[in-house]
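Q: Give me the 3D complex with zinc ion.
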Amino acid sequence: MKTQNKKDAKRDNKIIQLEELSWKQIEGMDKEKTIFFIPISPLEEHGPHLPVGTDFLTARDAAKEAIKILNQKKPELTNILFPAIPVGYTKMASCFPGTVSTHVKAIKTIVYDICSSLAQFGFKYFVICTYHMDLGHLRGIYAGMNKAMRKYKIKISEPWGPYFHGKEVEKREPKVGFDTKKEVHGGFRETSLMKYQYPYLVDESYKKLQSIHRDLYSPRFIGKTFKDIGIKEGYVGSPARADSNYGRWYFQETVNTYVQSAIDLTEGKELPQLPKHTKMIMKSLFWL
Ligand SMILES: [Zn+2]
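A: Here is the predicted complex, encoded as structure tokens.
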């Protein structure tokens, strides 16, 4: 019955959600072939035109989409969606209502506790799906992942950080006719993404927002809030240029990194790594 249910779920292209299973069903899963997708991103303001769940919704939806693709592409794998966790460190956006920032150590604890709770029953593969690229947040995520991988024989991958901070998006994106390097928060990319995924959640005022630029990852802005550095509306980039076709491409890129990561995990390939300079800055945030 148990196996039958699982097969039915795959045939119907349904997503297996951990919270809907009993411990008996979970125990009966093939630990060598089961992958958990764990979406974790904070609620965070994304300008006057986008929902605070922009990162949270994207991480969760991309995980769901990746699971659907894997169910077709790799039917021998069991892909399980962990309930999306609205948690993350976002000091920078904490000066706007609706942003919920968690201590970095809490993120480490959450990631470690989730992975180890499952690892102690033999589960081995985990994909952390986060869309929030703040280095303090990633510091917490990676600290939790590394601690869990030291304690158990498990593999945990976080694919979007290496993609984003490795500037893959700039290398691969379709030509849009302007410099996209400065599109960092609630700008062209994320507004495009939301126009594609949730057009009814994008406020029409985005068309009139002026381009605003700051290098948010510059060491001199570390520990500062948006308002400290003169960002009054909470976005950095050019939201008015948003284009849902670009949004579709960008969303699919995220999905592809999750899919590839899951395949690489189970095939024993090397996990994606954050670039060296990103790791160095992340380490320097010792007070977090
Ligand atoms: Zn975002």
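A quick observation: Residues 31 and 122 are 6 Å apart (CA to CA).
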